[in-house]
Amino acid sequence: MASEDVLAALGVEGASAAAHALSLPAEAYGNDPRLEAMWAMKAYNHAEVYFNLISSVEPSFLRLTKMDDHIYSSFREMFSELDVKLLKEEDLKSEPAKERWRPFCEQFQGLVEDFNFGTLLRLNAEKDYSEENSIFATRVQFFAVEIARNREGHNNAVFTSKRTKS
């Protein structure tokens, strides 16, 4: 079901309640499947907007946050060896990776809005979002990887492929 259909089915009051629910801290909820579906829909919409953006605008010109320079320099200082063109799940989800990512992410608490919100991240920079090519990451991990991909030219393939199809 498309996100527009889900929102329409909720109605004005339901959509307003959903927006309010998504603004509350995660600690306010247990494992409510309805809330998880709303988070997934929000992450999907963010991914769709971002992919359309890198398909339409040359990625090297994009600024994703006011803190792009700081995020990028800190990311490359802490993760100089990370291949952002082709990520593996263990680059983000293994226990050693989580231990490395935690201090990186925490430094942006209060500086990057929604720094720890769940966001979809593509594993292969040259491909679109799909079940096989997507992983959940925090918003600041998404920013770090995608800023690096934009600056290092890894998202150019998406931009170029969409331009040649037009």
What are the SSEs and their pairings?
Elements: H1 3-23, H2 33-56, H3 68-78, H4 90-93, H5 95-106, E1 118-122, E2 134-138, H6 139-152, H7 156-165
Antiparallel strand pairs: 1-2
GO cellular component, one term: cytoplasm
InterPro entries: PBDC1-like_dom_sf, PBDC1_metazoa/fungi, Polysacc_synth_dom
Organism: Gouania willdenowi
Describe this structure in words.
The chain has 166 residues and is mainly α. The chain has one domain: Orthogonal Bundle (yst0336 like fold), CATH 1.10.3560.10. Helices cover 58% and strands 6% of the residues. The protein contains seven helices and two strands. A two-stranded antiparallel ribbon has the order 1-2. Helix 1 packs across helix 2 and helix 3 crosses helix 6. The longest helix has 24 residues. The two termini are 27 Å apart. The relative contact order is 0.14.
Structural class: mainly alpha
Low-confidence stretches: none
Oligomerization status of the protein chains: single chain
Count of domain modules: 1
Helix percent reads 55-70%
Supply the CATH class. Answer: Mainly Alpha
Mean pLDDT: 85
Assign an overall shape: globular
Query: What Rg do the Cα atoms give?
Result: 17 Å
Q: How do the SSEs run, as a string of H and E?
A: HHHHHEEHH
Q: Please count the helical segments.
A: 7
Q: Give the strand line-up of the largest sheet.
A: 1-2
